[in-house]
């Protein structure tokens, strides 16, 4: 078999994805034909045209005949893959994540690197968001058709090598051919250099805790913690709550509820000039025979922040009396009140509990709660700021984002935060967080004048629960009441 290939076309930290693209380009062979020619026994035996994703995998190169592939590329690519992946993730060896999960499932790339036919494992690594060679932000979808490209030997999103299905050219070798394929790249990112130089034994004493989807190498290489906790040995003896509720799930619930209430108090204090606006929206207040008034953006931000953070059914108040925050449940099913991040918090609980298995229970429980409080507090405030950003437009147009949009907002608000601690928890826990700069926005409140405030004060609540009760009391509700109920239902369904 005659194959055009040079050893120098493969570079350090390169993924097989760009290697296969180059191989396909140089030999004018279509990807699936490459898979069939270089395929292991499994693929060669496949008569049908369909090759499943499992055989298109680029981690273990399942679909290829190892020996044949290594001979063609003049290098042990499987070994290179393993070695590179291990170099990147070995400092996190104590995490329970599978190696694959530290890497994106779709291609992310640096335009500069890809322009020269190079794609790196660094670009796929979930703890990085810029190219360590060029410092450029990584791309994750075609700038023309906005499609993702799966990290597979696949024609799903690609046409010819390095060309998107839509025709967009990621790398143009029509003139240069392969002249630049052996150009070497140099790592310039200090964070990455530090990470690669890390002695793996360093982690024997201290561990990291963070959510893999919201981590960053910057967090794990910094020597300047944001804050540190006190050691928990002294602290836990003072807390009385713990002796009253021996169940850790309940303790987590109680602490979470407390942190939510204090963030809420902090926000309400900031919004003290809009308390009437808030109660108007939250209690669906309006005047007799009039429509619902214009919504104050400050009130909108608070009411919808609260509703989505707690994952409540309605934005308006459930009942006139009592609050709508769930009480602790004895079966442990309701772990937190800030339900929108329950999975993320649950992950941290599991991972921390696993990592600190051998530590004294009371000490690690106190440490865990301290950690969860940091994450929840920071998230809740970021989340409010994000709701506030959209409040101006959304309040005016009387709508609320759908669940996909809320999920997106949640993901950008989840703090990039990491905790460093020693397993014995005898020294303080360090907390490092990459916080985003805050934007300051101002909106016009529709209830600024004394006159409009007076009007607000006279409005009555129209909560669906109270209207229903009132109608029941009437026995035979008249048309006016029915019309009112229909109007309120229509109004709340807009959000
Ligand atoms: Zn680059
Ligand atoms: Zn495209
Ligand atoms: Zn207001």
TrEMBL record:
Q: Which InterPro entries match?
A: TniQ
- Please give the superkingdom of this protein's source: Bacteria
Entry-linked Pfam families: TniQ
**What residues does the TniQ domain cover?**
12-138
Record's protein name: TniQ protein
**What is the source species?**
Paenibacillus prosopidis
Q: What is the lineage of its organism?
A: Bacteria, Bacillati, Bacillota, Bacilli, Bacillales
């Amino acid at each position: 078999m005659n194959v055009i290939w040079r050893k120098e076309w493969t570079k350090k930290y390169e993924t097989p994805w760009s290697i296969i693209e180059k191989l396909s380009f140089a030999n004018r062979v279509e990807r699936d034909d490459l898979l069939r020619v270089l395929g292991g026994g499994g693929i060669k035996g496949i008569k049908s045209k369909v090759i499943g994703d499992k055989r298109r995998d680029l981690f273990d190169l399942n679909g290829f005949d190892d020996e044949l592939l290594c001979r063609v590329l003049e290098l042990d690519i499987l070994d290179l893959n393993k070695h590179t992946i291990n170099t990147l993730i070995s400092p996190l060896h104590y995490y329970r994540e599978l190696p694959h999960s530290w890497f994106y499932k779709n291609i992310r790339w640096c335009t500069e690197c890809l322009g020269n036919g190079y794609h790196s494992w660094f670009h796929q690594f979930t703890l990085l968001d810029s190219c360590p060679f060029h410092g450029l932000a990584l791309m994750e979808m075609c700038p023309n058709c906005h499609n993702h490209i799966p990290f597979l030997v696949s024609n799903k999103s690609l046409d010819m090598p390095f060309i998107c299905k839509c025709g967009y050219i990621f790398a143009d070798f029509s003139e240069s051919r392969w002249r630049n394929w052996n150009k070497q790249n140099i790592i310039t990112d200090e964070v990455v250099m530090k990470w690669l130089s890390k002695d793996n034994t360093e982690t024997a004493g201290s561990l990291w805790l963070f959510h893999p989807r919201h981590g960053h190498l910057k967090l794990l290489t910094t020597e300047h913690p944001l804050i540190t906790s006190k050691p928990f040995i002294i602290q836990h003896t003072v807390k009385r709550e713990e002796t009253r509720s021996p169940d850790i799930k309940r303790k987590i619930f109680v602490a979470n509820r407390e942190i939510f209430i204090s963030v809420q108090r902090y926000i309400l204090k900031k919004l003290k000039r809009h308390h009437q606006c808030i109660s108007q929206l939250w209690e669906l207040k309006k005047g007799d025979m009039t429509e619902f008034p214009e919504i104050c953006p400050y009130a909108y931000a608070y009411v919808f922040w609260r509703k989505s953070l707690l994952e409540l059914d309605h934005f308006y108040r459930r009942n006139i009396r009592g609050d709508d925050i769930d009480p602790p449940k004895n079966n442990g099913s309701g772990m937190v009140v800030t339900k929108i991040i329950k999975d993320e918090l649950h992950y941290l609980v599991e991972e921390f509990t696993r990592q600190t298995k051998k530590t004294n229970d009371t000490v690690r429980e106190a440490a865990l709660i301290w950690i969860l409080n940091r994450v929840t507090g920071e998230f809740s405030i970021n989340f409010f700021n994000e709701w506030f950003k959209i409040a101006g437009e959304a309040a005016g147009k009387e709508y609320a984002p759908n669940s996909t949009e809320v999920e997106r907002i949640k993901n950008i608000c989840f703090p990039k935060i990491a905790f460093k601690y020693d397993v014995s928890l005898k020294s303080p826990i360090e907390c490092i967080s990459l916080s985003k700069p805050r934007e300051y926005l101002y909106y016009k409140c529709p209830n600024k004048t004394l006159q409009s405030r007076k009007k607000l004060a006279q409005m009555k609540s129209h909560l669906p629960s109270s209207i229903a009760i009132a109608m029941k009391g009437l026995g035979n509700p008249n048309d006016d009441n029915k019309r009112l109920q229909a109007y309120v239902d229509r109004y709340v369904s807009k959000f």
